[in-house]
Amino acid sequence: MRIVKRRTPEECEEFLRDGKEFRYDLYRVPFNGGKGGRPEPLRGAAHNGRSNFFPKYSPDGRWIIYCQASNYMLLQPDSELHILPSEGGEPRRLACNLGRMNSWHTWTPDGRWLVFASKADSPYTQLYLTRINDRGEASPAVWLDRMVGRDGAANIPEFVPLPDDGIVEIREQFIDDYSLTTANTTLST
């Protein structure tokens, strides 16, 4: 069992009250036969006065798509998806970005599509799909309206290569507080 200590507002004053900035930069670490090496800032996604986070390489290794916001990294209203060549370079804002909180993205195994979460049309994250062409340009986003219930969130999507009959049944567990409590009580006894 892992015990997580909750922080009090007093312990977080520098961020909550004083508005301390907290930004992330992306770095590249050489593989070097598994021995690693000296981390180097990823040109275009480091030291740019923004917070850069959640990088994902395209399956062919040509591109990196990552999120960028003014501060922090989780649930930021101004978070947008950016793309840059994997060797570094000039990042570009993807045209698929919507009005609010674009994040939690993943590539299809063939590297032609990207699914991502956004709060553009709901207080909950919803999934959107975009096509990425050979030049690293995104098509307009298409809402995957059947991927989440009306009052639910969809986030951290992942494509899983399964055969057509790979999922026979989906059990709905933990769909509300009651089912979670019931399951925890059952597991404890």
- The count of helical stretches stands at 2
Given the helix and strand composition, which structural class is it? Answer: mainly beta
Residue share in helices? under 10%
Q: First CA to last CA: what distance?
A: 16 Å
Question: Please, what is the average pLDDT?
Answer: 86
The profile of the biggest β sheet is: 4 strands, antiparallel
Number of domains: 1
| Relative strand content | 15-25%
Q: Measured on Cα atoms, how large is the radius of gyration?
A: 19 Å
The neighbouring-strand order within the major sheet is 3-4-5-6
Outline the low-pLDDT stretches. none
Instruction: Tell how many strands the DSSP assignment holds.
Output: 10
Q: What gross morphology would you assign?
A: globular
What's the order of the H and E elements? HEEEEEEEEEEH
What do these coordinates show?
By secondary structure, the protein is mostly beta strands. The protein has one domain (9-184). It has helices at residues 13-16, 177-188, and strands spanning 27-28, 40-41, 51-57, 63-69, 80-85, 92-93, 102-107, 113-118, 126-131, 142-143. A four-stranded antiparallel sheet has the order 3-4-5-6, with no helix packed on it. The chain has a four-stranded antiparallel sheet with strand order 7-8-9-10, with no helix packed on it. Strands 1-2 form a two-stranded antiparallel ribbon. A hairpin with a 5-residue loop joins strand 7 and strand 8.
Outline the fold blueprint.
Blueprint: H1 13-16, E1 27-28, E2 40-41, E3 51-57, E4 63-69, E5 80-85, E6 92-93, E7 102-107, E8 113-118, E9 126-131, E10 142-143, H2 177-188
Antiparallel strand pairs: 1-2, 3-4, 4-5, 5-6, 7-8, 8-9, 9-10
